[in-house]
């Protein structure tokens, strides 16, 4: 029998409403988002069995509110409704309110986002979902205002309507919940990756069709679709890979990627003062950002800009301009999100808030906007006026004294670039004195894995050893804090989140294992340190056990009975990208790279099975399947296996650098940089030896067919070009 949770509190009334055992229970939670709500008069509880048991004991619905620390509209709804005593009293009396940090519990967010979209036709945060005490959803929406608006009821009206339906029409409520759960189960079944199904052959025409579909969806202001406009990171990675392989659509892919990358780097989405990109733009021309800055966006975009540099750029968007954006973004990630360890940042925090608290009020973008008067006062009348004109500060949207983020919206000429380089240091110093947005300091394993890959690439391509050293420190933190070796069937366990150097909470999702493995393999390619190759292999082996051992791939390991109820007992893998690549697509990509290094045929076979998701999506929904497309492009272009052997000399460094600078999407690099213990060496390196005179050389193979080893950069370039055809 489930114990009444009120008994744990001695049955004493707490707070308004006199509900035994009820109080706001978020004060001790490590999540910054949950702690933001710890002072609300709402009797919030964290998501878990205790909250649902309490709802069952009281015979009331659960009100589930999902958001995240950097979310502007989450702050708005909190101020309007959750901090209002009357609203809180009604919520406490008729519901069990539950708060979820979507970044700590993406499994919860994914299930109830699907329910919200099915019920309301929209999705977003804050998400507001009404549940039976067993976890099944029956009504949902997103932000609700304190007073009715055209087409949107007030939050109080929604609460009263749900309470009345619960009291007067319980049977209909439960029937709605059952119908929705069956629908979600059917949707899971329809998109399931069956691991016993034969993988269809990938055809290049699929990828060409996807490029053409993306070209039809391109917006004249850069990017895809209308406002709100998000950085299409996964799609960009596909286009960059496609552009690197000769085909009829390679030039089209290159132009699409270049226009989008240029538009974002010259827009208000990109912080020209400190570096880094905002989450999205509320306008189609990228001129008004939604100011929160997320680790996952910046890690992905950093890699995209680096890969544009590797392609060589275009006249419309030169590689040097992309390299500058990449370098400043890497610096911003480490400076603004770096959690300092003994040797520098050894993990990266999740985000900076969209809002800045100024004189006790939340001001969206308060740390990023400038007025013409502020620029003139800081820089002097002449430079201030020129900077305001150059950077789009001209009473943007609200009269001559209104502020705007600094952005040119176009390429700078030489004189303009010189002006900007002269005034930027003063702008940075001044802004550092302003109130700053809050930082969410939780460390998410998968997002740090994305950062490891990006910083490893940045260290190599920008020739900045400090960035590579940071990537190694972060990888070491993931191994030390988030990873526990061993476990069921010999598989280790990756924890998704850590706070203050301690892992806690749910096990990582498939995406966490995959992003970390991808980052470690990228780090191995640059450093040649066997430690990172081995750690990546351990992660992929554990992911197989946890997410690919039940006949169908799944995103999570099933932490909650309520989530199972909500989706009709079904659990699967989401094929579509969200703000980050889908876990399934990222897993396939990491498996492909690992297979090329290890020779594990089962890894390549499993990757092929996952890519069976692609054919119906390639032309129909390419914007939502960017990482599947990128992974398929790598599969079709490779495996292109390169081994670098011989003594550590300038000649070996030049050969290695030439490989790292190659844009070939199917290229996997093994560097013989250290001696391995017996049985621990990278299989791809076995039997590869230096030249007869002990000089370094490269072995380049494709599909197990190898060319003669070469010892010069010129000869290596010829081999790479011939194998790309």
Verbal overview:
The protein has 725 residues and is α+β, with helices and mostly antiparallel strands. It is 47% helix and 13% strand. It is built from 25 helices and 24 strands. The protein has a five-stranded mixed β-sheet with strand order 1-3-2-4-5, with helices on both faces. A hairpin with a 7-residue loop joins strand 6 and strand 7. Helix 13 (372-379) crosses helix 14, helix 16 packs parallel to helix 18 and helix 18 (510-527) packs parallel to helix 21 (583-598). The longest helix has 21 residues, at 170-190. It is globular, with a radius of gyration of 26 Å. Residues 1-17 and 396-400 have low confidence and may be disordered.
- Main sheet strand line-up: 1-3-2-4-5
- Determine the N-to-C terminus distance: 68 Å
Q: Strand-residue fraction?
A: 5-15%
Record field, number of beta strands: 24
Number of helices: 25
The helicity comes to: 40-55%
């Amino acid at each position: 029998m489930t114990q009444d949770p009120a008994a744990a509190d001695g049955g004493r009334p707490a707070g308004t409403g006199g509900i035994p055992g009820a109080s706001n229970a978020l004060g001790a939670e490590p999540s910054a988002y949950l702690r933001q709500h710890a002072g609300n008069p709402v009797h919030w509880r964290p998501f878990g069995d205790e909250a649902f048991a309490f709802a069952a004991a009281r015979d009331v619905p659960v009100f589930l509110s999902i958001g995240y620390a950097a979310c502007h509209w989450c702050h708005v709804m909190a101020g309007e409704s959750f901090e209002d005593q009357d609203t809180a009293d009604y919520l406490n009396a008729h519901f069990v309110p539950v708060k979820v940090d979507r970044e700590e519990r993406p499994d919860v967010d994914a299930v109830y986002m699907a329910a919200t979209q099915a019920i309301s036709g929209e999705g977003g945060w804050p998400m507001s979902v009404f549940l039976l005490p067993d976890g099944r959803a029956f009504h949902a929406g997103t932000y609700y205002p304190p007073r009715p608006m055209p087409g949107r009821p007030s939050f109080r009206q929604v609460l009263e309507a749900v309470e009345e339906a619960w009291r007067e029409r319980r049977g209909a409520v439960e029937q709605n919940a059952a119908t929705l759960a069956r629908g979600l189960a059917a949707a899971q079944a329809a998109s399931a990756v069956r691991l016993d199904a034969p993988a269809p052959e990938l055809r290049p025409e699929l990828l060409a069709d996807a490029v053409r579909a993306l070209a039809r969806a391109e917006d004249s202001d850069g990017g895809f679709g209308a406002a709100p406009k998000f950085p299409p990171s996964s799609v960009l990675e596909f286009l960059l890979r496609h552009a690197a392989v000769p085909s009829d659509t390679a030039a089209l892919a290159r132009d699409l990627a270049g226009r989008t990358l240029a538009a974002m780097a010259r827009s208000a989405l990109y912080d020209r003062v400190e570096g880094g990109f905002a989450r999205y733009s509320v306008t189609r021309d990228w001129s008004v950002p939604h100011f929160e800055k997320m680790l996952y966006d910046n890690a992905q975009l950093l890699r995209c800009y680096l890969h544009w540099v590797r392609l060589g750029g275009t006249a419309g968007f030169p590689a040097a301009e992309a390299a500058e954006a990449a370098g400043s973004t890497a610096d911003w990630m480490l400076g603004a999100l770096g959690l300092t360890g003994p040797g520098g940042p050894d993990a990266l925090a999740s985000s900076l808030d969209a809002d800045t608290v100024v004189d006790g009020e939340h001001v969206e973008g308060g740390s990023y906007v400038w007025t013409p008067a502020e620029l003139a006062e800081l820089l002097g009348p002449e430079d201030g006026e020129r900077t305001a004109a150059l950077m789009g500060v001209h009473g943007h949207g609200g009269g001559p004294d209104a502020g705007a983020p600094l952005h040119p919206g176009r390429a700078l000429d030489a004189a303009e670039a010189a002006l900007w380089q002269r005034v930027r240091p003063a702008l940075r110093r001044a802004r550092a004195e302003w109130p700053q947005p809050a930082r969410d300091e939780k460390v998410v394993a998968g997002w740090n894995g994305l950062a490891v890959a990006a910083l490893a690439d940045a260290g190599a391509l920008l020739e900045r050893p400090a960035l590579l050293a940071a990537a190694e420190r972060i990888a070491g933190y993931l191994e030390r804090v988030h990873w526990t070796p061993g476990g069921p069937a010999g598989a280790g366990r990756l924890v998704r989140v850590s706070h203050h150097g301690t892992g806690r909470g749910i096990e990582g999702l498939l995406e966490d294992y995959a992003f970390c493995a991808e980052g470690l393999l990228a780090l191995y390619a640059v450093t040649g340190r066997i430690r990172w190759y081995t750690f990546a292999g351990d992660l992929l082996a554990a992911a197989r056990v946890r997410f690919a051992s039940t006949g169908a791939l799944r995103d999570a390991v099933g932490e909650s009975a309520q989530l199972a109820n909500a989706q009709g007992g079904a659990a699967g893998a989401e094929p579509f990208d969200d703000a980050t690549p889908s876990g399934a697509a990222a897993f396939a990509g990491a498996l492909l790279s690992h297979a090329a290094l290890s020779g594990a045929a089962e890894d390549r076979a499993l990757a092929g099975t996952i890519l069976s998701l692609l054919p119906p999506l390639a032309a129909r929904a390419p914007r939502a399947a960017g990482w599947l497309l990128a992974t398929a492009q790598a599969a079709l272009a490779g495996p292109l296996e390169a081994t670098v052997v011989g003594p550590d000399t300038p000649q070996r460094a030049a050969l290695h650098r030439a490989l790292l600078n190659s844009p070939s999407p199917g290229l996997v690099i093994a560097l013989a940089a250290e001696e391995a213990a017996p049985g621990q060496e990278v299989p791809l390196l076995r039997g590869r030896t230096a030249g007869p005179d002990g000089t370094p050389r490269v072995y380049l193979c494709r599909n197990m067919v190898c060319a003669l080893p070469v010892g010069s950069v010129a000869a290596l370039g010829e081999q790479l070009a011939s194998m790309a055809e």
